[in-house]
């Protein structure tokens, strides 16, 4: 069996398990974990945003929380202030994130390495403090709470986020679709242009690739993914706040990405899942649990520089003999 | 003879150093060699031609169009391809994908929807370019695992895959064994049937075996320009360059 076939099989199995998770957890009488799983899916999508930039195009962003925040506020303001339904509010959140990324990207993609990292942090800090200040719009320190509208309300069929299982499936659907789109993107001509820019921008330019344009496109798509994650998180918490725009939140996405395997499709969400589970299990028991997170991350980076997924792929290549 | 590339008074200054100093030349059909001692400004001149560096003064025309202010990727799309003196390929990708990316740049290069593996036309063009450099057997290998000589060949194959009108080669056989050099020379000669070539090379056997015309650069200026036989006899050239070779 080829490595590709093994990974495809495992992905299908993972998806099947995720689809039946609410029943599985109910049978194990561990319903609490369903909300944790919902959160993991959302943060896994957020990690994908940092991964698109770092793993695919080679740009290390510490500012993806900015677009996550725009997604959150877009949903919250859309519902709370404009009285939008769930889908239009999500559209507003994602659109706000994309527009913000399109503007910030024009400046950011002209820089690389630490300069790029710094400018992304600077942008996110500016809007973090703005969000705290603009109390009439953002709710300031208190944030914005709202009652989530129905997912759909057709005749007798009303689906609402207030049911944990329904909420979980809704999030799973959106996140799975987002990953399917990413999978297609990676195998497209654009995905190969991303790889070319990452592997050698000078060479890419000499072959006719408009490096700045390619980076900008990646920046906008990454902003859209972060915005989508933020929109889902707002719906999940019925809440938007500036704290999720802080750069430490961006940093978590980078850690998840590196731990899970930068450049791989499913590594970053696996990294997110692992560290969130560690946090859930240990934060109540031991206040210094971040030390474990740190030690785990260092261990992976030392022993598997390409992360968990990278290490797995190397192992698989050896076993299948290619 | 219409020139594919024309330089008019092109200069490039680095601080106080005039690395390229008022170069006026044309590149026509066939193989033109650009020679000169180390530090003469050959690579810098390639950087100015290909757009990796802006000129300090002068104009550059390519296929009749003024390209002086164009970025490197625009020039590439107009049909100018080049290899780097310090060889560079996309190390983490397969040999075939390297050539595929090069071949795709003239046709919807940023299409986000269709699977790249479905694009048979680009794949065929990539394979043709690899074949021209004898790399087809290595198509599935990761480019980072290639031997040095094969990296140099892959660079040429990638340049070819863009279907250029002009190919700039910066010391293409540097570091190759005599047997590899001989094979590469034959391949470059075959390429020159369809593509004009400007080649920077230190190996005088290669230069005089390949070139239809030789341009000698010294201290950033054109010292001599003419058919190989005339260049070999030119006393100034012998003093400034070939003499140095003999002494070495
Ligand atoms: N980016 C640069 N900055 C400063 N000096 C440079 C740069 N590139 C080349 N030079 C200088 O310009 C001169 C010509 O270099 P180069 O074009 O590489 O010569 P060649 O390829 O003929 O050996 C050298 O003196 C070199 O040190
Ligand atoms: Mg040189």
TrEMBL record, chain A:
Xref: InterPro entries: ABC_transp_permease (IPR001851), LivM-like (IPR043428)
Keywords carried by this UniProt record: Cell membrane, Membrane, Transmembrane, Transmembrane helix
Species in which this protein is naturally found: Plastoroseomonas hellenica
Stated name of the protein: Branched-chain amino acid ABC transporter permease
Subcellular location: Cell membrane
Superkingdom in the source lineage: Bacteria
Bilayer-crossing regions: 42-70, 82-107, 113-131, 167-185, 216-236, 256-277, 289-308
Mode of membrane association: Multi-pass membrane protein
Automatic annotation (TrEMBL), chain B:
Gene3D superfamilies: P-loop containing nucleotide triphosphate hydrolases (3.40.50.300)
CDD domains: ABC_Mj1267_LivG_branched
Entry keyword set: ATP-binding, Nucleotide-binding, Transport
Record domain ABC transporter: where: 5-244
Domain of life: Bacteria
Transmembrane parts of this sequence: none
Keyword Ligase recorded: no
Keyword ATP-binding: yes
InterPro entries cross-referenced by the UniProt entry: AAA+_ATPase, ABC_AA/LPS_Transport, ABC_transporter-like_ATP-bd, BCA_ABC_TP_C, P-loop_NTPase
Molecular-function annotations in GO: ATP binding
UniProt cross-references to SUPFAM superfamilies, sorted A to Z: P-loop containing nucleoside triphosphate hydrolases
Pfam families found in the cross-reference section: ABC_tran, BCA_ABC_TP_C
PANTHER family: AMINO ACID ABC TRANSPORTER ATP-BINDING PROTEIN, CONSERVED COMPONENT OF ABC TRANSPORTER FOR NATURAL AMINO ACIDS-RELATED
Protein known as: ABC transporter ATP-binding protein
Native source organism of the sequence: Plastoroseomonas hellenica
